[in-house]
C-alpha cells in the first residue's frame, strides 16, 4: 500500500512521534494505522506523546566552544526532574545538542528543530529529541541557544556553575590572546553568574529602560510618606541618585569586582590589560539560568501515584 503524506501526518498527530519513524511504522504495517500505533508503542517511541504535556523546568545549561575558539554556543535543555538533569545519558545528549547548535544557521528554535540531526541525518533534531524522551522517560525540551562567532582577536570563554544550573559565555576583544585573557574571562564570567548584570556599560542601557526605571523610582518616592513635604527638585535629585546607584548594579563594568571589593570590574580589566600590554574590551556576554521564567512543577507523591493508576 502506498504511504501518503496525509497518513504520516495523521500518525504523527496521534502519537507525537517524529515524521520518519511514523513513515517507517506505516511502511512496516502496510498502512494499517492501528498496527502502526502499536508498533511505535512497542518501540517505546509513542510513549513520548503522553509526556509532551508535562512541565519541563529542570535541566541543564551547557556550552560548546570550538577547538579553534572561533565559535561558541550556549544552550538550555529542560527536563521534568532534577534527577534526570543529573543523569549522564541526558548530559551527554545536551552536549551533542550544544555542538550541533554551533554549526546551525537557524534563526529561531523551530528552524533548529527542523534541521537534520548530526548523528543520524535521517532524523531531524526534533525527532532525535522525541527518541530521547522515549529513552529517558520524561518530557524534554530544547528551550533556547545563542551562538557567538568571533570576528576579531580575543577569546571566547565559558563558565558553568552548579553542575549546569547557570552558564555564562563571554567574548573578549584583545590583540594578545594570552592565558591571562582566559583567566580574566573566567573571573568575569563568574561575576556575571553571581550578580547577573543586564548590560556591559552605561552606554549600553536603552533609553526606554532608563525611562521605565525613572518612572518606577518616581512613584516609589511620591508614595513614601517621608517625602510628602519635600520639594519636587529635591525628590528629582533623590531619584537621580537612586538611578545612578541602580545602573552601577545593572552594568557589569561598574560593579564591585567579587574577588576584590576595592576594585570595580573595569579597574580589574585595566590591571590585566596593563599586564598583557594590550587593551581589553568585553564585547558581549550571555547568561542562562536553568528554568528561569518557567512554571515549576508542583506535585506531591500521592498525586503521582493516583495519576499512575489511571
From TrEMBL:
Cited Gene3D superfamilies: 1.10.286.20, DNA helicase RuvA subunit, C-terminal domain (1.10.8.10), Elongation factor Ts, dimerisation domain (3.30.479.20)
Compartments, record wording: Cytoplasm
InterPro entries: EF-Ts_dimer_sf, Transl_elong_EFTs/EF1B, Transl_elong_EFTs/EF1B_dimer, Transl_elong_Ts_CS, UBA-like_sf
Keyword Ribonucleoprotein included in the entry's annotation: no
Main location: cytoplasm
GO cellular component, one term: cytoplasm
Domain Translation elongation factor EFTs/EF1B dimerisation: 72-292
Keyword field contains Cytoplasm: yes
Molecular functions (GO terms): translation elongation factor activity
Positions of the UniProt region annotated as Involved in Mg(2+) ion dislocation from EF-Tu: 81-84
Keywords, alphabetical: Cytoplasm, Elongation factor, Protein biosynthesis
Functional summary from the UniProt entry: Associates with the EF-Tu.GDP complex and induces the exchange of GDP to GTP. It remains bound to the aminoacyl-tRNA.EF-Tu.GTP complex up to the GTP hydrolysis stage on the ribosome.
Family note: Belongs to the EF-Ts family.
Protein's recorded name: Elongation factor Ts
Amino acid at each position: 500500500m502506498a504511504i501518503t503524506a496525509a497518513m504520516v501526518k495523521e500518525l504523527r498527530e496521534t502519537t507525537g512521534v517524529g515524521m520518519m519513524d511514523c513513515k517507517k511504522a506505516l511502511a512496516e504495517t502496510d498502512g494499517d494505522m492501528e498496527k502502526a500505533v502499536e508498533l511505535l508503542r512497542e518501540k517505546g517511541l509513542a510513549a513520548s506523546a503522553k509526556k509532551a504535556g508535562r512541565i519541563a523546568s529542570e535541566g541543564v545549561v551547557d556550552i560548546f566552544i570550538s577547538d579553534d575558539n572561533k565559535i561558541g554556543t550556549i544552550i538550555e535543555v529542560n527536563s521534568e526532574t532534577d534527577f534526570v538533569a543529573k543523569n549522564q545519558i541526558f548530559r551527554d545528549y545536551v552536549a551533542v545538542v550544544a555542538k550541533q547548535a554551533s554549526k546551525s544557521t537557524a534563526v529561531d528554535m523551530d528552524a533548529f528543530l527542523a534541521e537534520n540531526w548530526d548523528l543520524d541525518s535521517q532524523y531531524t533534531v526534533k525527532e532525535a529529541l522525541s527518541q530521547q524522551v522515549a529513552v529517558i522517560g520524561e518530557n524534554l525540551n530544547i528551550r533556547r541557544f545563542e551562538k557567538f562567532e568571533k570576528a576579531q582577536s580575543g577569546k571566547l570563554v565559558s563558565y558553568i556553575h552548579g553542575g549546569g544550573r547557570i552558564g555564562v559565555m563571554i567574548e573578549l576583544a584583545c590583540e594578545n590572546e594570552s592565558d591571562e585573557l582566559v583567566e580574566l574571562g573566567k573571573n568575569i564570567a563568574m561575576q556575571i553568574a553571581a550578580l547577573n548584570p543586564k548590560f556591559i556599560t552605561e552606554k549600553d542601557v536603552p533609553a526606554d529602560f532608563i525611562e521605565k526605571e525613572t518612572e518606577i523610582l518616581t512613584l516609589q518616592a511620591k508614595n513614601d510618606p517621608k517625602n510628602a513635604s519635600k520639594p519636587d527638585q529635591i525628590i528629582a535629585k533623590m531619584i537621580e541618585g537612586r538611578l545612578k546607584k541602580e545602573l552601577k548594579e545593572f552594568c557589569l563594568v561598574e560593579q564591585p569586582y567579587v574577588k576584590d571589593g576595592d576594585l570595580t570590574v573595569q579597574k580589574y580589566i585595566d590591571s590585566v590589560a596593563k599586564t598583557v600590554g594590550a587593551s581589553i574590551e568585553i564585547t558581549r556576554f550571555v547568561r542562562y539560568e536553568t528554568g528561569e521564567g518557567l512554571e515549576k512543577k508542583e506535585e506531591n507523591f500521592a498525586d503521582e501515584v493516583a495519576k499512575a493508576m489511571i
